[in-house]
Amino acid sequence: xxxxxxxxxxxxxxxxxxxxxxxxxxxxxxxxxxxxxxxxxxxxxxxxxxxxxxxxxxxxxxxxxxxxxxxxxxxxxxxxxxxxxxxxxxxxxxxxxxxxxxxxxxxxxxxxxxxxxxxxxxxxxxxxxxxxxxxxxxxxxxxxxxxxxxxxxxxxxxxxxxxxxxxxxxxxxxxxxxxxxxxxxxxxxxxxxxxxxxxxxxxxxxxxxxxxxxxxxxxxxxxxxxxxxxxxxxxxxxxxxxxxxxxxxxxxxxxxxxxxxxxx
Length: 264
Prior knowledge:
Elements: E1 9-15, H1 22-29, H2 32-35, E2 38-44, H3 51-56, E3 63-66, H4 73-86, E4 91-94, H5 105-114, E5 125-129, H6 142-159, E6 171-174, H7 175-182, H8 194-202, E7 207-211, H9 228-249
Parallel strand pairs: 1-2, 1-4, 2-3, 5-7
Antiparallel strand pairs: 4-6, 5-6
Helix pairs in contact: 4-7, 6-8, 6-9, 8-9
């Protein structure tokens, strides 16, 4: 495996037209606490603005992959997972480029990924929740809260597990989860969200939530603004049902968690 990293953690940041936000995010990631812990990979999804050049001009030597064509949020993440596996990272932390995810969460996610539970097992996936009691009090739109409660209930029904924030984009993954996600047809190439969480629950991956520090988006427009959360909720419902049918009823692709072979 050529070019293996000396650090355990890779922070993956998908970015599309985030020139107004990403500079501050990268500056925050240049703190000694983060630099000593993790490498940063920006997946520039064919941005039409200055996102690409802002990353290249940043003080720290952040890693950058620029797509020739816009592939979508999910594809940007999955390519980042493939990069992480090939470079030998043990953990991946994914965060957004819009400044909503505070970098102070990164050491907390890393710590949670390494902490064993009462059975002596560390989690495979750590979710940073906006809705836990110790979270930062981040306020979301009514439409987003409705969507979150809907998917929360659906996960409880289909997988028998309760999480407070099934739509969070701030997550940490160990290499087993990253390896599974990196393979063909194991990850939604457009809108990976509660559907992927349901998939990992049904496959037996261990999931843990921790409180998050998050901030409102300062500039730009979220892909879930306006009525889009309701359209998104409709699409995600059918995606989750497809996952449930594939794994629970048809018993297809059910060997994920125990498949520890090396990436080829």
